Amino acid sequence: MGAPTKATILIVDDTADNLSLLSSHLKSIYTVKTVNNGDAALRIAFSNHPPDLILLDVMMPSMDGYEVCRRLKADPRTRDVPVIFLTARTSVEDEKFGLDLGAVDYISKPISPPIVLARVKNHLSLKATADSLRATVEEVRAAHSRLEETQQHLIQTEKMAALGLLVSGVAHEINTPIGVALTAVSHLSGLVESLASQFQNGAIRKSDLARFLENAREGALLVTTNIVRTANLIQSFKQVVVDRAGSERRVFDLKDYLSDALFGLDPHLREAGHSLTVSCPTGLTIDSHPGPLSEVLSILIRNAVAHAFRPGQSGRVTLSVTPREEDWVELRLADDGKGIDPEHLPKLFDPFFTTRRGIEFPGLGLYIAFNLVHQVLQGSIEVESLPGGGATFVVRMPRRVSAPAEAPA
User: Fold this and answer.
1) What InterPro entries does its record include (predicted)?
2) CA dist 388 to 48, 277, 344, Å?
3) Which residues does residue 383 pair with via DSSP β-bridges, in sequence order?
4) pTM listed for this prediction
5) pLDDT tens digit sequence for 306-336
6) Beta partners for 395?
7) Residue 400 per-residue DSSP state
8) Which residues neighbour 242 within 8 Å (Cβ) at sequence distance 6 or greater?
9) In the sheet that 380-385 helps form, which strands lie side by side, from edge to edge?
10) Hey, which end of the chain has fewer CB within 10 Å, N or C?
């Protein structure tokens, strides 16, 4: 690395002797530039290589030092360059006026070069510290911006994972009635072919026709029932997806909505060897945001499947809903798993906290759930757990939110 560059000092004074005196004492340490008027000083200051510090006389013709300082401090290119006034004006009012303009110091004439040198060293040191702090702040801001972008990306990834799980669950549920309907149609097609063959051969009997009609009636009913079931599943799925896509507020029956919102999670639970039981009073209406509520419950259930049970363990997850006083409702989602380590409880809703670090577990699920409950559902969420005694997440929310809210990104 090369030697550090000397600091540049600009001396502005309309008296040649003052310029010569100050320059002779400073040029052995610093790069010194001298001018005898304010216009020339501003040209140098606003150039591509502004000085690191300016020694500025106050009383100059055409443009005095106060006006030069005012212009320097008004321009973003030079507002951080330290200005030290050199003047014969020694009143308190003059000094205060100069400092109020943005000068860092005020040296009275006649000038003592050692004093000027000491003041210059001090203010250059302070400027270096300030520059370093500004650079650090900019680095922190840039890092914070990158962190926010990464966090938003991970949050969207977590939301898409939850939606993907819902889609796979719905696909699994739809496959069952579609499969039944397809089997019934295939069987009915075979009966039609058989009856047509008998008709062409003139061998059809009344009993054959009666049996065909009975089988056809049963097959048509089976097809109709399962197609209607499929249509209902798709309609429920569409409503859940619409709710998930935003945070619109509407009035809905909580029991019916939970049935729609959670049915896509059943296959995921069964595949992992677990069961889900939902208990909710009939006729409990809510005026809130169903999408965020669905997302919170999905996150909590996925969290239970991922973390609550030991490998090979068949667990139970229960969701119980209880109306509370003053038009509040409490949802308790409990599992009979291994419980949560007490030292993890205080950090459970912190962003990026997870006990299973990896791409599938970025540690944002419970953080998202916490924000949705507090910011959108206007409620609270907490966890109760003892090692070996399972865990219970308790969500308390008003049956009617007080004002429209938007889900966090």
Assistant:
1) CheY-like_superfamily, HATPase_C_sf, HATPase_dom, His_kinase_dom, HisK_dim/P_dom, Sig_transdc_His_kin-like_C, Sig_transdc_resp-reg_receiver
2) 69, 21, 14
3) 393
4) 0.48
5) 888 888 888 899 999 999 887 999 999 999 9
6) 331, 381
7) B
8) 248, 291
9) 275-279, 316-324, 328-335, 391-398, 380-385
10) N
* Residues in Cβ contact with 281 at an 8 Å cutoff, skipping those fewer than 6 apart: 255, 321, 322, 323
- Distance separating the N- and C-terminal Cα atoms of the chain: 47
**Tokens at 127, concatenated:** 């400027």
For residue 177, count other CB atoms closer than 10 A to its CB: 20
CB 390 within 8 A of CB 337: yes
Per the omega criterion (within 30 degrees of 0), is the bond before 398 cis? no
3 state SS of 157: helix
What whole-number distance in Å separates Cα of residue 274 and Cα of residue 385? Answer: 19
Q: HSE-up of 82 (CA within 13 Å, CB side)?
A: 22
62/39 Cα distance (integer angstroms): 9
Whether the Cβ atoms of residue 216 and residue 194 lie closer than 8 Å to each other: no
Task: Tell me the β-bridge partners of 54.
Answer: 10, 83
